[in-house]
């Protein structure tokens, strides 16, 4: 029997199959951070094929946390209505939809007059500026930004939230010992480095109420010695468990300008398995998981509970339609 096409519950949200559309930025936001007419068309088209869950792209919680000038955001009330059009378009196909909330920290492009912020004053590379090390007031403001964006996400009709703690963005910058050199309560040991993530999750939970699904996207490796490992990530996830995390979405990299050590199909699967076993939470695996046989074996072997698919859905939004499924997965 195919496990891929069996249902799965993320808290109160039922997925009709184990396939998730990975969050993928479209670079089509309006200059003021609003979704445009493109977004409901795009996400509606992607939902048509019958995927189990859509995760809408990285969505900024603060204007100084936008990665690019055409990112979408949820940092103002005006952003709610255009995103309501997206959730309506996806729901019209009976598919649940989460949104990924992010702050780019030192990898942001703040508008003129706003500061580039990070846990420590360490630039990502020569092209990004040197960020200001966040004061306790900056940290409290960023936590509040996540909570306010979460409240707006509920108002926009999303069924759940994914906190972006991967790919070298602000939460990841706090988690990794390579980018967090703080000697206050937000740095030092693993618990200190996880404190910002925990405060964000607590504030988001308070904003959305009990039972609303929260998932966490993590980078299981920084691809260099003394960076994040699955064990360190597990420690951080455990610190957030009291906030009711329903799934961990296991990606990798992005903290430093180094390429991944591998990118063969399923190269992140073993990290997904390790984190799944250590945390006991449902895990979403991602990364070159495009062949049906690989997806089936990852599920059957307990490496993951759900499989996220990225680029093939952009290339062919109809990737998932039943009549294409066998061709697309095995092609
Ligand atoms: C165009 C594009 C945009 C992406 N944007 C995001 C994003 O907004 N947030 C995120 O966490 N990952 C993002 N990713 C990474 C994908 O979610 C996914 O992890 C990656 O593409 C690997 O999956 P795949 O091999 O199935 O494509 C993006 C990838 C692509 C190709």
What does this structure look like?
The protein is α/β, with parallel strands linked by helices and 331 residues long. It has a single domain, classed as Alpha-Beta Barrel (TIM Barrel). 34% of the residues lie in helices and 17% in strands. The protein is built from eleven helices and 13 strands. An eight-stranded parallel β-barrel has the order 3-4-6-9-10-11-12-13, surrounded by seven helices. Strands 1-2 form a two-stranded antiparallel sheet. Helix 1 (38-48) runs parallel beside helix 2. The longest helix has 20 residues, at 136-155. It is globular, with a radius of gyration of 18 Å. The protein starts with 7 loop residues before the first strand and ends with a helix. The mean pLDDT is 95. Bound molecules: flavin mononucleotide.
What is the annotated CATH architecture?
Alpha-Beta Barrel
Structural class: alpha/beta
Percent in strands: 15-25%
- Into how many domains do the coordinates divide? 1
CA distance, first residue to last residue: 20 Å
Mean pLDDT: 95
Widest sheet: strand order? Answer: 3-4-6-9-10-11-12-13
List low-confidence stretches.
none
Bound molecules: flavin mononucleotide
Any idea of the CATH class? Alpha Beta
- Shape descriptor: globular
Major beta sheet, specifics? 8 strands, parallel, barrel
Question: Percentage of helical residues?
Answer: 25-40%
Number of helices: 11
Q: From the 3D structure, determine the CATH topology.
A: TIM Barrel
DSSP E strands, number: 13
CATH H level: which superfamily? Answer: Aldolase class I
Radius of gyration: 18 Å
């Amino acid at each position: 029997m195919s496990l891929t096409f069996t249902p799965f519950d993320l808290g109160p949200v039922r997925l009709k199959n184990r396939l998730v559309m990975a969050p993928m930025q479209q670079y089509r936001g309006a200059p003021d951070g609003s979704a445009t007419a493109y977004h409901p068309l795009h996400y509606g088209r992607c939902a048509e094929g019958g995927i189990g869950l859509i995760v809408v792209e990285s969505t900024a919680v603060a204007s100084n946390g936008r990665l690019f000038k055409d990112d979408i955001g949820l940092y103002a009330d005006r952003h709610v209505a255009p995103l309501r059009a997206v959730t309506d378009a996806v729901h019209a196909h009976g598919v649940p939809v989460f949104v990924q909330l992010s702050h780019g920290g030192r990898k942001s492009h703040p508008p003129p007059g706003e500061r580039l912020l990070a846990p420590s004053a360490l630039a990502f590379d020569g092209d990004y500026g040197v960020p200001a090390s966040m004061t306790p007031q900056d940290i409290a403001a960023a936590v509040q930004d996540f909570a306010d964006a979460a409240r707006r996400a509920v108002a926009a009709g999303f069924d759940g939230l994914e906190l972006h703690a991967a790919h070298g963005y602000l939460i990841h910058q706090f988690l990794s010992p390579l980018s967090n050199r703080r000697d206050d309560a937000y740095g030092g040991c693993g618990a200190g480095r996880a404190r910002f993530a925990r405060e964000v999750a607590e504030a988001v939970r308070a904003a959305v109420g009990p039972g609303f699904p929260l998932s966490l996207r993590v980078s299981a490796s920084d691809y260099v010695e003394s960076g994040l490992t699955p064990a360190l990530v597990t420690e951080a996830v455990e610190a957030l468990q009291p906030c009711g995390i329903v799934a961990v979405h296991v990606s990798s990299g992005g903290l430093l300008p180094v390429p991944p050590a591998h990118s063969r199909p399923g190269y992140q699967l073993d990290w997904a398995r390790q984190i799944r076993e250590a945390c006991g939470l449902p895990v979403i695996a991602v990364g070159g998981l495009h062949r049906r046989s690989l997806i089936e074996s990852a599920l059957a072997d307990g490496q993951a509970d759900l499989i996220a698919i990225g680029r093939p859905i952009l290339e062919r939004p109809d990737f998932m339609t039943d009549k294409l499924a066998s061709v697309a997965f095995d092609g």
